[in-house]
Amino acid sequence: MNVSMGGGQLRGRATVAALVCAIALIPGPSYAAPHDPGPQGDGSIEHIRTELDGLYRQAEVATEAYDAANEKATKQTKRLAALHTDLARAEDRVNTLRDLAGEAARTQYRGGYLASTGLQLLLGNHPDRVLDEAAQSRQAMLGLVNAAQTQKTARAELDGRTEAAEKELRELKRTRTDKARAKDKIEKKIADAERIESGLQKDQTRKLAQLEKQDTQKAKSKWQGGGGPSDRGGPGGGTKVSGAAGKAVAFAMAQIGKPYVWGAVGPSSYDCSGLTSAAWAAAGHPVPRTSQAQWQALTRVSLASARPGDLIIYYDATHVGMYIGGGQIVHAPRPGRTVTTAPAASMPILGVVRPGV
């Protein structure tokens, strides 16, 4: 796709770099902005690459923040629904006790006992442990009053918890809305970035591809040169992966070619943490939804001991890929790309976590 600027196509590296600079100045959430392009010349393509990568990084940070906020709001909604159910049951129990109290008072006034009121089934957890019909009705009335007071107290406490949960949900929804707005701003920047890429001349596109290839080779060398485990296991090296990790790796590898989509968890598309969480859920060991939650909640292991199925966390826990052995990961890279394999050392590694332990 070509992009028109003032009636003409984007031409030349200087024009493209200038547009990148303009995009970097678009207001957005408070994430670190990419560096401005440097002097034009042989290095301008590399500056363009840096700007594009910066925009995509901002997008991933915003997406992960939105996913985390959405997950919290969803969980709170379910919790609140359960509290409302419990509150309704407590209200019914209080009402039943009130009705029984009235019936018991009338029975006692007539000089009868409470055996016929149904109180036996209400006051105890075990229906077989009923009040002795020979017991004095005064004792039964005292038990009824105590039970009624206990239920009223419990209902009041539950009502307070429900009100607090409703307030928390309102705050979480506001946070989710804020994160969604931030993500929308970033998505507009991504659209601009994609227009930049589509507006590059053929020689510039070729040079960008060469840069990516060079970076890939450097990442492979770094892993083999001591930047990671020396294994050759998994799909990248031939050693069979078994158990839950094997299932997770097989699931993730089966998704290769499916597109990256914001917030997606499958089955037709994924974002980075959507892929890893779906893979481990398929293996019978659910993990947290977002990369930051995966980093915080799962067992951390050393990079040197990484094995297929482990999750490699990148940057500031805003990207994640699944290690498949042989110095490779499978991951959902960014918008415009599909699930694919890549060198494990192709991005700054924060650490490694191991699900299922």
Description:
There is one protein chain. This protein has 357 residues and is of the alpha+beta class. 57% of the residues lie in helices and 9% in strands. The chain has 8 helices and 8 strands, in the order ββααααααααββββββ. A 6-stranded antiparallel sheet has the order 3-8-4-5-6-7. Strands 1-2 form a two-stranded antiparallel sheet. A hairpin with an 8-residue loop joins strand 6 and strand 7 (340-343). The protein starts with a strand and ends with a strand.
What secondary-structure arrangement, pairings included, does this model have?
Elements: E1 4-5, E2 8-9, H1 12-24, H2 44-109, H3 119-123, H4 137-199, H5 202-227, H6 243-254, H7 272-282, H8 291-297, E3 299-301, E4 311-314, E5 319-325, E6 328-331, E7 340-343, E8 349-354
Antiparallel strand pairs: 1-2, 3-8, 4-5, 4-8, 5-6, 6-7
Largest sheet geometry: 6 strands, antiparallel
Q: How many DSSP helices?
A: 8
* Approximate shape: elongated
- Strand fraction equals 5-15%
Helix content: 55-70%
Order of helices and strands: EEHHHHHHHHEEEEEE
Low-confidence stretches: 1-43, 112-117, 127-136
Write out the strand line-up for the largest beta sheet, numbering strands in chain order: 3-8-4-5-6-7
Count of extended strands: 8
Query: What is the radius of gyration computed over CA atoms, rounded to a whole number of angstroms?
Result: 31 Å
Instruction: Summarize model confidence as the mean pLDDT.
Output: 74
What is the CA-CA span between the terminal residues? Answer: 48 Å
Q: Structural class of the helix and strand makeup?
A: alpha+beta
